[in-house]
Amino acid sequence: MHIHYSCLAWEAGKPLVIEEVEVAPPQAMEVRLKILFTSLCHTDVYFWEAKGQTPLFPRIFGHEAGGIVESVGEGVTDLEPGDHVLPVFTGECKECRHCKSEESNMCDLLRINTDRGVMLNDGKSRFSINGQPIYHFVGTSTFSEYTVVHVGCVAKINPAAPLDKVCVLSCGISTGLGATLNVAKPGKGSTVAIFGLGAVGLAAAEGARMAGASRIIGVDLNSKRFNEAKKFGVTEFVNPKDHGKPVQEVIAEMTGGGVDRSVECTGNINAMISAYECVHDGWGVAVLVGVPNKDDAFKTHPMNVLNEKTLKGTFFGNYKPRSDLPLVVEKYMNKELQLEKFITHEVPFSEINKAFDYMLRGDSLRCVIRMDA
Fold first, then answer.
1. Which 3-state string (H, E, C) describes 233-262?
2. Is residue 112 domain-shared with residue 189, that is, in the same domain?
3. Among 2, 19, 42, 236, the one annotated catalytic
4. Residue 266 lies in a domain
5. Which long-range CB contacts under 8 A does 79-85 form with residues at least 24 apart?
6. Is the domain of 209 the same as that of 165?
7. The one catalytic residue among 19, 96, 300, 370
8. What pLDDT is recorded for position 52?
9. Which of 137, 157, 268, 304 has an alpha carbon 20 to 30 Å from 54's alpha carbon atom?
């Protein structure tokens, strides 16, 4: 057993507490990672507040991170101690029908499971305090100096990549970026609407900028976000509250019938419908990224479909974690993708609760937490 510091959520919504935690060695097909940098994503806050599914406490949150392999369990052949890696909340077993399909990244074995707080191998946790198990979170639990992760949820990356920057690629930034580049696929000179200008929406805008879109229209209820959004290529801004008609009609008027592509990053059902209805007939494609409430229903007139407006969805930007994330890191390394502008704050591990405060106040895109401090 290793004894290390981890940041525990003992109960919903209460400040996290740094405790000495025993981290067991990795078992078959598992690796133990030394986390060097982790960042806070809204999903951590959502489940910490216990707004998600089944509340499970005590728990170690965290799922956006960068680190180094410390040890490997039996059967692990493609990772070794010293490798630089990004742990990911979803996985790629490389064996199931989804992993073998070029069209899917929704691994049957390792797809995200927010209810499971234990390892797949034996149904037990690798974290404990004096024998009391501490639950895992989405298979990663990166708010810890050391964590144990299934090998299929670990992307091996270029060791020259700065982990304090590329750690943000292990969740939200890749989700938005891939929604645009892999699913919407806007052509050079096209028009793109982005609904929701948080970190994921701005990553979607960054994707549109990288693809050479001529107009990127940001849609958000908070007009203060527009200035920040300009850094990510957003050229125009629409606040639905400023108009007496549905925002899809406003966008259609601005663009001569609709945008070529739209990406929805809010999870609000009305924004989803607007994002679909604002694309141009004949070729328009809308991509849904935001996670809806469980009782939501998507309603639109079937003529929109018959008029050749396409609706798509995406999970983690259609990236396969092990196969594709290393290539996204290379986009950063060759300066095609800019990550610095997503990182608005940095705090030492001892001040992790500040990261939650920044996120709850709404003035943080990504707060990177340095684990060695």
1. CCCEEECHHHCCCCHHHHHHHHHCCCECEE
2. no
3. 42
4. yes
5. 79/31, 79/151, 79/154, 79/156, 83/156, 83/159, 84/156, 84/157, 84/158, 84/159, 84/161, 84/163, 85/31, 85/33, 85/154, 85/155, 85/156, 85/157
6. no
7. 96
8. 57
9. 268
C-beta separation of 367 from 356 below 8 A: no
Give the three-state DSSP class for 367. strand
In a domain, residue 157? The reply is yes
Q: Which of 93, 167, 278, 367 is catalytic?
A: 93
Task: Establish whether 215 is a catalytic residue.
Answer: no
93 is catalytic: yes
Question: Of 63, 98, 322, 345, which residue is the catalytic one?
Answer: 63
Annotation says 107 is catalytic: yes
Active site residue 278: no
Catalytic annotation on 171? yes
Taken as a whole, the chain contains a residue count of: 373
Q: Tell me, yes or no, whether 352 and 262 share the same domain.
A: no
Report yes or no: 341 and 335 within 8 Å, Cβ to Cβ. no
Whether residue 260 is contained in a domain is answered as: yes
Closest Cα partner for 115 from 147, 137, 140, 92?
A: 137
- Asked if 99 is an active-site residue, the reply is yes
**Per the residue annotation, which of 7, 153, 167, 171 is the catalytic one?**
171
**Domain hosting residue 133, numbered range:** 2-170+339-370
Prediction pTM value: 0.95
Domain membership flag for residue 184 = yes
Instruction: Check pLDDT > 60 for residue 159.
Output: yes
Q: State both tokens at 176.
A: 């938005």
- Residue whose pair of structure tokens reads 């996290």 in the numeric block: 16
Q: For 201-217, what is the mean pLDDT?
A: 98
pLDDT digits (tens, 9 = 90+) for 132-155: 999 999 999 999 999 999 999 999
Q: Does residue 167 carry a catalytic annotation?
A: no
